[in-house]
Amino acid sequence: MEKLNRMCADCLKLGKECEGTNCQTWTGCVYRVTILDEMKRQAAEINRQKAEAIKTGKNQITYNDHKGQAHTLYYIGGRWVDNGTRQRINRQFPHAVEYGRAAQ
After folding, report:
1. Hey, how many other C-beta atoms are within 10 angstroms of the C-beta on 49?
2. Measuring CA to CA, which residue among 84, 62, 65, 58 is closest to residue 73?
3. DSSP label at residue 5
4. Within a domain: residue 72?
5. Strand partners, 95
6. Domain containing 67: what range?
7. CA distance linking residue 50 with residue 41, whole number of Å
8. Is 20 helix (H, G, I), strand (E, B) or coil?
9. Is 16 part of any domain?
């Protein structure tokens, strides 16, 4: 078997949607997606969701990372935080009101 082209080694599609190429002179692939490319795409989508949530008065968003694991971010005190940080804030400031959520 011929050696796999180096550009295929870190492609997320290798072994799933594509078998790669053995051609060593081929220097570009329009279908290639690296972890960095995927993370940039996801970051842009998360930022879009954050902006939309703030416009509509929501205080949380949920997204899936590149591995398919679900995550939730909460908007507290003018910034987005994960659940662990949210719990620490709630323990320290039990009477704080989260953005978009009325006191009960």
Report:
1. 16
2. 62
3. P
4. yes
5. none
6. 6-92
7. 14
8. coil
9. yes
Kindly report the pTM of this predicted structure: 0.67
**Token pair listed for 30:** 């329009």
What pLDDT sits at residue 77? 79
- Tokens (6 digits) for 58: 């929501």
The rounded distance, in Å, linking the Cα atoms of 74 and 52 is 13
Q: Of the candidates 86, 65, 84, 91, which has an alpha carbon nearest to the alpha carbon of residue 75?
A: 86
Q: What per-residue confidence (pLDDT) applies to 102?
A: 45
How far CA 52 is from CA of 41, 62, 64, 66, 72, in Å, comes to 17, 12, 17, 21, 15
Q: Are strands 79-81 and 70-76 parallel, antiparallel or unpaired?
A: antiparallel
Phi, psi of 77 (to 5 degrees): 60, 35
Query: Does the residue 26 lie in any domain?
Result: yes
Task: Please indicate, yes or no, if residue 101 is contained in any of the structural domains.
Answer: no
- Longest CA–CA span in the chain (Å) reads 67
Sheet holding 60-64, edge to edge: 60-64, 70-76, 79-81
Give the pLDDT means over successive 10-residue stretches in the chain (104 positions).
Answer: 83 90 85 90 94 91 87 90 90 72 45
